[in-house]
DNA sequence: CTAATATGAATGAATG
DNA sequence: CATTCATTCATATTAG
């Protein structure tokens, strides 16, 4: 990997900028935007999901269905970190500051309902003065605000009817079995050890194509 | 793009430094050292190898058995969950499996916009091998996929002009937990050591190309 | 610490 | 297509 020795470089590829520069002691660093990192993350998650599913499939086919509930299709259960006993990779989420919240609530109360895209931009840039925020954050906030006030209204209406009211919040998302990740990982691992590494590499491209792993 | 007024944060984790720069419009960049990039590469390599082998197994075994899930009226009994004896869930809405998603993405990437009705039939029937799905699901998926990809433009390239950005599309500021890189970097090491490095790098190159990780 | 809740975000489906 | 709604998921926060 050669990245030149300039303090900073621009790499234009597919319309994206990649920056590279010296960090500290001559260590060369590459800069990825959050979106790029996120894309990468998704890609890796896709791999892990596939590995997960197939490993499970393998196990069930091998008639060793011991243990644990499985959670399929959960793209956010990352066996990578769990396989070494670490926590599941987390994503960070925006948290409105008090001021931002205040402003948002004000705007919301003014009734105008769904802000247009244009309005969202305005709001976002105003709120940006009080902390980091994006238009998407604003958009989501209004979506959620509307949806939840509506739901609240409905559930209170329901409770007036006083029937089989298990309302408000009936079902709690069942927590993922802590051992799930570990088991999955072990499944992958054991299978992996079983597999002959040398076989079938040539078919990789076909496989990758089939699953769209290479984009 | 310039780096003049960057905010810098250090995240100390397991002795590694991750730098996060606030570029200009609140766009954040993550800095990875060559070493870290190398680590990432290794893990991707590992996953690609695992996925390949598992998928092969899946294919060969699928030739003999149908393990792709059972429709029970409105209920969908996940084959793997079923194998462990619980969790028959009622799904109010279709949820693509990881495999289905990958296939869909793959088709989507091949461009050609809205698939014809005929095409949708084909896609649906192919995806049906991996789980319950209807043509409507496929149709909706493409609709949504298109619509939402539009919202994801802009972002990382130009961050200088912020004033009258009526033209700019929404951008997600989805900061990624700095732990992400760390966790990824440490996770699959055990797998990696089993993987075939020489072959894996090829797949890495393919995978990483779209992220511009390589020079 | 564990459990419950609040809420930001993702996404299938519906509507115009 | 463009928007919007409804539901679900995951995380941050707080209560016990």
UniProtKB/TrEMBL annotation, chains A, B:
Comp. bias (Basic and acidic residues): 166-177
Protein location: Nucleus
Top-level lineage group: Eukaryota
Annotation: DNA-binding region: 89-153
InterPro entries the record matches: HD, Homeodomain-like_sf, WOX13-like
SUPFAM superfamilies, alphabetized: Homeodomain-like
Pfam families to which the protein is assigned, alphabetical: Homeodomain
Swiss-Prot/TrEMBL keywords: DNA-binding, Homeobox, Nucleus
GO MF terms held by the record: DNA binding; DNA-binding transcription factor activity
Name this polypeptide is given: Homeobox domain-containing protein
Protein's organism: Gossypium stocksii
